[in-house]
Amino acid sequence: MHLLVLVVLSIALMVVDARFTLLKPLRSQMALVLMPSYTISDFPQRMWQGVASQFGSRTELIAENEKLKTEALLLQGRLQKLAALTEQNVRLRELLNSSALVNEKVEVAELIGVDPNPFTHRILINKGERDGVVLGQPVLDARGLMGQVVELMPYTSRVLLLTDTTHSIPVQVNRNGLRAIASGTGNPERLELRHVADTADIKEGDLLVSSGLGQRFPAGYPVATVREVIHDSGQPFAIVRAVPTAALNRSRYMLLVFSDSRTPNSAPPMPRRLRKRLIARRRARSMAACRLPRRAHLPHPLRRARLRQPLHLLLPPRPLPLQPHRPLLGRDTDEQYP
Question: Distance of CA 41 to CAs 34, 54, 168, Å?
C-alpha cells in the first residue's frame, strides 16, 4: 500500500513538473542541497582517471622523448653530412675555378691514403696507369703545386709532395724572375731556397712560381710564398724560407695536369703479355726476311760444304764493271802485230 502511494505520488510530481513551473524553485533548492553528495560520489572515479592519466601521460612522454631524441640525432647526423657536403662543394668549386685557369688538360683525383712513415711525405690517390697517369706527372690543388707522381699502379698512384727532403723544384720569383731551387725540409709548412746569393733581390712576401726548367713542372704555377730572408755578412748565401701555397696536409681533392699530347681519354696502355707477343712476332718476321735461299736442290755433301763457308762467300759475286776497249799503242804493238 505504501509503495502504491509512493508510485502515484511520483507520477503526479513528474506530471506537475512537466506541465507546470511550480516545482522549479524546489528543484533548484534540492540540486543545491544535493551538490556535495554528487561531488563525493564522483570523487573515486575522478581520482582513478587522474591516476591512470598521470601514469599514461608519463609513459607517453617518455616514449615521445625517446622518439624526439632519435630524430634529433638523425638530424644532427644529416646536418654534419650537409656541412661536409658543403665543404666538399666549396673545394670542388675551387678546383673547377683553378682548372678553368689552367691551359693544360686536367683530371680530378681524390686522396685515399697517406704514407705512415713520418720521414717521407707521400700520398696515395685514386688514379693510376689505367686512367692515363704517367710518372713525373704534376699534381696541384686549388692553391698551387703539391708534387709529382713517383709510383704507378693500375688503379692508384703515389705522389711525392714538395716538402719531402728528397724533392726539389726549380722556381722563380714572380716579381723579378729571379731563379732558384726550392727544396723540401721535411716540414709540411716550410720550403728552403738553396744557394741564393746574399745580394739577390728577394724579400718577404714574394710569390715563387714554377720556372718550367727541367720540363717536369709546367711554368707559372704557384709554389710558395717567401716568409723569411736572413742575410749573414759572413756567409756567401742567404737563408730563404718559404711557405707552400698548396694545402699539403689538408687537401682531399687535387688535379692531375696532362701537359703533353697524352690525355686521360686516350687508349689505355697495351698489356705486358700482348706487348711481348707483338715484339716476338715482329722479330720472327724480321728473321724470316733475312733467311738464306732454300738449298734443297743441292746435293747433300755440297750443301754441307756450302753451309761451312762464311756468309760473304755464299752471296753471288758482283759483276765487274765494263771497261772501254783501248787499242795498244807503241813499240809493243808493232812487235806483236807486224
Answer: 11, 21, 98
